[in-house]
Amino acid sequence: MKPQHRWRDDEKSGTRGWGMEMLVRQRPEGARGTARPATTVPQPTDGTSRHFQRSAWLRRLGMPLAGIREVCALEPAAAAREIRAHWARVEAETAVRRDLAAFLVDQLTAESRKDTAMLELRHSAHSDTGRVRPANQDTAYAGARLLAVADGYGPAGAPASSAAVAALTFLENTELPAGSVLNLLEDAVQGARQAVRDAAGGAAEAGTTLTALLLTGSRLALVHIGDSRAYLLRDGGLFRITHDHTVVQSLLDEGRLTPQEATSHPQRALLLKSLGGDTSAAPDLKLHDALPGDRYLLCSDGLSGVVPDDRIAHLLSTAPAPDAAVRTLITEANATGGPDNVSCVVADVVETAA
Q1: Mean pLDDT over all residues of the chain?
Q2: CB-based contact 316:329 (threshold 8 Å)
Q3: What is the DSSP string of 322-342?
Q4: 207: which residues sit within 8 A by CB, 6+ positions away?
Q5: Which residues make beta-bridge pairs with 50?
Q6: In angstroms, rounded to a whole number, what is the distance separating the alpha carbons of residues 314 and 94?
Q7: What is d(CA 99, CA 328) in angstroms, rounded to the nearest whole number?
Q8: What is the average pLDDT across 287-295?
């Protein structure tokens, strides 16, 4: 129950002022989302009292003291924007903690888990220069267990992306220890980071994105850094299973930018994380349960930056096989003008006899 503030004018006692009573508000049947607090907020008339009450409310939101002081010094409209941005960050951080919790549960139960089916990947990969760029700095790879896409940048972008993918290919023939495949993948990415630096000759302005999936039993281990993407097509629905590490995505997460504004933002290609240069940012690591009939797509932003997700979903779901899907997606990207290199890896999960 939440305290309900109401103005009280008690003729019998002669008492006037803000009283307190308890109120329970039921969420309407079928409503979704986070329940809103039922507290009716009084409007104090004294400026000092208003300041202290606002500070108390912001503390309940979990805002740091430095942020509270900053918000309380702003005009109402600017303060509202900062509060909205703070809450967007809280929600984003909560999502990260949720993913971490899921990862820990998977890791702790992996040793006792028995796979019910033997799965394999039927795959295709291709990388295309596009219609504008003079050279191709992307790398696409598909093997029996490993799928990867890397999008290089800078003067040594091509060798950087190639080195990053090559540094992971040993996983094709490595015994994958139960319960610690993500640790193995993380170590492999550290090796890829050093390989990229070597390939770039230490140049800080060169580097690459990297998005890869590794099949282990009935699961796929994901490693991701940058703005290449991984999608899952399951039961007719397309799901993006990576989060872009870009300036524009961070603005979207904070509520400072709308999806419509993001498509034309001048910094939409500016990365917050990548392999190369002087950065040591950690990649995203996750485990995904794989099911027979799943279709996975890994792509560089040469596809996702010019072809909308709904169009990708249609082309991916109607292609009869991975090689046809790859060709169709790349053709679609080039039909929009092909402003960037475009790379696609498509893999179908199929069940094999034990």
Answers
A1: 83
A2: yes
A3: HHHHHHHHHHHHHHTT--S-E
A4: 152, 153, 154, 157, 160, 196, 200, 274, 275, 276, 277, 279
A5: none
A6: 32
A7: 33
A8: 95
Higher pLDDT, 205 or 95: 205
With contact defined as beta carbons under 8 Å apart, do 208 and 275 qualify?
yes
Query: How far is residue 267's CA from residue 78's CA, in Å, rounded to a whole number?
Result: 23
With b meaning 16 or more CB within 10 Å and e meaning fewer, what string describes 279-305? eeeebbbbbbebeeebbbbbbbbbbbb
Give the pTM.
0.69
Exposure string over 128-138, b if 16+ CB within 10 A, otherwise e: bbbeebeebbb
Cα dihedral: 37, 39, 42, 43 (round 10): 10
pLDDT in tens, 37-86: 444 444 544 566 777 788 888 888 888 888 888 888 888 888 888 888 88
Question: Could you give the CA distance from residue 344 to residue 325 in angstroms, rounded to a whole number?
Answer: 9
Helix residue spans in 117-246 (DSSP H): 157-166, 181-199
Q: Which pair of structure tokens corresponds to residue 216?
A: 């282990």
Cβ atoms within 10 Å of 150's Cβ, excluding its own: 35
- Nearest CA to 299 out of 213, 217, 215 is that of 213
Cβ neighbours of residue 69 closer than 8 Å, sequence gap 6 or more: none
CB 225 within 8 A of CB 210: yes
Candidates 189, 352, 347, 178; CA nearest to 282 is 189
How many Å apart are CA 136 and CA 267, to the nearest integer? Answer: 22
Query: What local confidence, expressed as pLDDT, does residue 40 receive?
Result: 46
Q: Is the pLDDT of residue 18 over 50?
A: no
* pLDDT recorded at residue 12: 41
